[in-house]
Amino acid sequence: MEKRVLSNKNNSIILMIGILFALIIVIVGPLDYFTHGFYDSEDYYDLMQEENRDVLSLDSGKCVVRFSPIKDHLAGIEICLIKEENDQGNLNIITCDTSEIVIEQQVIPLQKIKNGEWYKIYLEKDYRVGTEYYLIFSAENCISVPAMPEVDDAYLPKESHYGNVMIRYAYAESTFSITDKILLSLLLVSVWIGIVSELIGDQKRKVFQTMFVFGILVILASWNYMNYSLLSEDENFKDFEDFSEMLVVGKIWAKADGTECPDEVDRAYNLARYEDLRGVYESESLEYITDEQWQDGYNLSAPVIAIDANRLTYSISTPGNIIRFGNGEEYLISDRVLDGNFILVFLDADHLLDRAINGSLDEAIFYTPDYQVLPTSQLDVYRSHFGLQGKIFTMLSIGNEREHGIALLNLICAIMTAIVFVVLTFLLKQKYNTLFAGCFYITWLLSPWISGFARNLYWVEFTWFLPMLAGLICSIKTDSKKGRIIGYIFMYISVWIRSLCGYEYISTVMMSAVAFLAVDVFMGVIRKEEKGSCIRKFRVFMIACFMALLGFVTAIVMHSVVKGNGDIGNGMMRILQEDVMRRTNGADLNAFDSSYWPSMNASIWEVFCKYFHFKTEIITGIPGSLFPVICILPIAILLCGYWRKRPDHEMTFLYVWYFLASVSWYCLAKSHSYVHVHLNYVLWYIAFIPVCFYIICRGLIYIIKNSARTDCTKGKKDQISYMENELHN
Q1: Range 4-24 burial, b when 16+ CB lie within 10 A, else e
Q2: Co-location of 678 and 708 in the same domain
Q3: Is residue 254 part of a domain?
Q4: pLDDT class for 509, splitting at 50, 70, 90?
């Protein structure tokens, strides 16, 4: 009876906490309750220097503006008054709905408002996006009646529907980004599972405890990979590899606006760089020229616009073509001049053009003389591999990534990376021990290089570790036929997926995939296990190697079909000549641009030596200058074990294997490693550095335990000697 009462009480607690956490998730997420700041609308204008504007005096009645917010969290407005400096009157501001029901009212002393400057007015109530409201301005008790500047419709912000007074709108921003909200929600779910594990019966407790630990570890890693919270060098990695990621983003943007590759043959490729009037996108932010002569691409002294100089813009800016701006005005292109990185397009107009009236150049449309529409964007495809990640993320995109960014896709990538790491950690604990698994997880969590790659849509870092996961499954399930088959299939699929996403680091990835199978074979021989057991382990190792190689070859064939436009043989030859040779050894310098020659002429030894000098911390708190020590110290510890007749063959093998796995890419892909030093340090982290940390930590633990045992033994000897002396006396 007592157990039943306790169970009912625990169930009630679980339910109450679950409801509380669900409310918090709703408040933080859908309701978006937490906001901050007062930010001007992006479409604001500043016309204080305009000479030909009118003013609306507030003595002839009330000034009325009808508006509707275009974003959530309207925080207030900014107005400009023309007034006497020492005026003692008040400005009355009333907001009401279309039924003339007052929402809020403010009275502001005119002394607070400076003449001809923007003044911020905070609104306290909630205003819904798309709903119309009225702003009513009036003045009272004034010595000299103030006025508000009036402007043309072209200068009005998008929010204003009626009333041409100069005004701009400000919004608060959400305190938590969409990715923060998702991670915080997942954290609350994990904490709730942890609470359940403490209150539930013994039969299911272990399952919930495992789910709790798994969830916390995944969220911790995902949060760090999205925000770099646990790194001391976050500024070095916040924009890490945007250049490569834009190959995926380019395809996403192209899907949203219908941009195509100019060559139909290239449309089978899944990675491409986006280019338009702004230029060729190597990062998400690319602006039109703005300086003392230009404003957002418009010349300040003549009817001329400046656009980026690339193949696309040169083809559409031919004199005689026509340009139509966002406000509908059309002008003939009279001339163009190539000026450095820009094309200056001269228009047949009798007045200056500007963004406020004519709109952003993004809205401009180019026509031929007979009014055929010309493309203002195109894709420059990337042909070095199949680009599966571009295809997948383009399918997952929802069409507004150009406006709102790709944070959600980055979060998916970061969470996938974290999940793979945590699954590997659990399996490493099962195969070895908690310390071994912990060294891997901590290294992957705190490495600035692992963290930098983790969320990148091009590199899809989790695909590097899927083959290792497959190999570990085969190693743990060596005695299970079903487990081995699952491991073989997973090995094939994981290497195939990795290769379709890119051949970078493939030698390291494939050697890491079979490392634990190789050590099983090695240890079977060292331990002189039964012949049948050794043969079985060797067979598992060889089949896994074959499946990995088969996955790689399958990806090469698929790439060859695209590269050779259906001709596999031609595609294979092109891959060998254009991609393999350029990144490895043996390339003919005559076949490549001179910019590639230094990497092709460099020696393998020169490249190899580059990667022992870290430019960053190894992990948070451990400077890069210690990397040679971290490499050498495990050797000393292992040699000490051999000297003391207690050799650790398994860790020795893993140390050597993973060292060779890391340097295999440095040596085999010598040209790639020579050029991409800023990328390839990450290869040490796939497993070599975690193994080094484990050997060092275990050596320190042994020294501490041995020291404690020695002190204990010495203490016992001193105690026995003291007792003997007492008895003798």
Answers
A1: eeeeeebeeebeebeeebeee
A2: yes
A3: yes
A4: very high
